Amino acid sequence: MTNTDDSIQLTLAQAIVRFLANQFIEIDGKEQRLFGGGFGIFGHGNVPCLGEALYQHKDVLPLYRGQNEQSMGFAAAAYAKYHLRRRMMFCTASAGPGTSNLLTSAALAHANRLPMLLLCGDTFITRLPDPVLQQLENYNDPTFGVNDAFKPVTRYWDRICHPAQIIQSLPAAIATMLDPADCGPAFLGLPQDVQGWTYDYPAAFFAKKVHRIRRAGPDHNEIADAAELLRSAKRPMIIAGGGVQYSGAVAELTALAETHQIPVVETIAGRANLLSDHPLNTGPLGVTGSDSANAIAEKADVIVAVGTRLQDFTTGSWTAFSKDAKFIAMNAARHDAAKHMSMSVVADAKIALTELAAAIDGYESPVEWTTFAREERQKWDQYVAVNVAHGNRPNSYAQAIGVVNDLCDPSDRVVAAAGGLPAEVTANWRTLKGGTVDVEFGFSCMGYEIAGGWGARIAQSENETDKDTIVFTGDGSYLMLNSDIYSSVLSNKKLIVLVLDNGGFAVINKLQNNTGNESFNNLIADCPTVDKPFAVDFAAHAASMGAHAETVSNPAELAEAFKRAKAASKTSVIVMNVDSHEGWTTEGHTWWEIGTPHITENDSVRQAHTDWESSRSKQRKGV
């Protein structure tokens, strides 16, 4: 390495790591490192050069050893979500299958608008040793490889063919990941030879850089138009999405709602914007929502959608609202603000909510409307209270959720993902503190739960909190990806994991039955290729990875086990069987569009198709 006053000679890998180590962000007036570190699994494509560089910075950029590249990406996404997209992690994987394993987690981060930096090995730029180990050869285009598959699932993509290119590419990648309107994963393909090539980098490239998240103010004409429309509302409603939290706009959302008496409903990503007992919190909306939120949604005449991409589980495939309802979509991303002919306010939520509140000064929604919303919420609360209670009925997801909700600390973080649990947590969880719920349903990705819990726990421990991360997972997701129980034990990042075993992919079995089909290949008992079904000993499996683990028979025993887990110093796994047919939350669902057979010889399938299609008349056609 040679240094002058103006330049520093480094390898490409060394330069990347040194640059990342000097990136900071200002959060609430305090400077912190932008990157909390990274997750890595080494192979021939990244260990000689990038591994050498990371070793030199291991004290400031801690590298967590993953067990699976996909779960590393999930952990990085959960870390970024905990930090409200203001801090992030990088992931490094070797060339070939190590890198391709990250595709699913990149898609998850992309769908959820979450930043993470992917530093992945690539084939030699000289092509002299071609074909190399794990290279997928494209016969017609030698430049086209596995890493090109990341282009549709990342917001920024580059293959670094010369060390000088990162002078432009790294700042562009970070700018993308910190842009509220364009946030998502960034990918850098690092050819194995180029990683070790040297370049005389400008010393200024490695100067300390302090980032601040941009807050784009709204166009005054857009605010004026939105205010005029909202003032005309007789039955206004606010849909609060995850973007409210990312903007730090919960106080502004609450002030707008309280000052003008506008009921608020939450998306899945927006759960925990308002506490459950707030008088204007009318509940979660949509397919996995509440009767209360859906009741006001179908009557609302003006709907302010804040920080949400309005996906089909929120909108009931656009049947949840009156066809005459008018939308004001407030979002930092133009793409999301312009959906379904909405009146767009393209801006940061914190600023836009404040300006909109001022622009409708003196307006207040009719008392009978807010009274209706409160009464509907009270009825929903009564339903949930019965739904989560346990007694002489089969064990259910809702009962387990109720037990944990009663015993957890308000600051504990709850993590869930695909399967039946996102719906059950969204519908039944009572928010005790803002920003404490992570239900990954943007990509609805099985396997996120435990890995995401680990990433969230790493983030929590940086804030010196002693509160817990609580993971809800089904048996199907557990079997798909569980190795970060071991990661949590190795890194001393305690998790409390509830494995609720319903004997297979029970929620899809429920959908299968609801569409008139016979149970087939979802529950273990209904798989024609299974010889003799048997129950997995999840507690023994978790214990083999170093966790404290136990199996309980009912919610009362679960409560005692949860108390032990809270008191424990290491990861605890609690297993309980739940009924695969009974005990689902049956209320609170809007229609959801799925494909059903238009012709069939099965009478029950034919009838289900007719029943399903009968609600299509309610669907808005984009206006």
How would you describe this protein?
The protein is α/β, with parallel strands linked by helices and 623 residues long. The protein has 3 domains: 205 residues, Rossmann fold (3-Layer(aba) Sandwich), CATH 3.40.50; 160 residues, TPP-binding domain (Rossmann fold, 3-Layer(aba) Sandwich), CATH 3.40.50; 189 residues, Thiamin diphosphate (ThDP)-binding fold, Pyr/PP domains (Rossmann fold), CATH 3.40.50. It is built from 24 helices and 23 strands. Strand 8, helix 6 and strand 9 form a beta-alpha-beta unit. Helix 1 packs parallel to helix 2. The longest helix has 22 residues. It starts with 6 loop residues before the first strand and ends in a 10-residue tail after the last helix. The mean pLDDT is 96.
Please specify the SSE layout and strand pairing.
Layout: E1 7-11, H1 12-21, E2 23-27, E3 30-33, E4 35-40, H2 47-56, E5 63-65, H3 69-82, E6 88-93, H4 97-100, H5 103-111, E7 117-122, E8 156-159, H6 166-177, E9 186-191, H7 192-196, E10 198-202, E11 209-211, H8 220-231, E12 236-240, H9 242-247, H10 250-260, E13 264-266, E14 281-284, H11 291-297, E15 302-306, H12 312-315, E16 326-331, H13 334-337, E17 343-346, H14 349-359, H15 367-388, H16 397-407, E18 413-416, H17 421-428, E19 437-439, H18 448-462, E20 469-474, H19 475-480, H20 484-490, E21 496-501, H21 506-514, H22 538-544, E22 548-552, H23 555-567, E23 572-577, H24 603-613
Helix pairs in contact: 1-2, 3-5, 3-18, 8-14, 10-14, 11-15, 16-17, 16-23
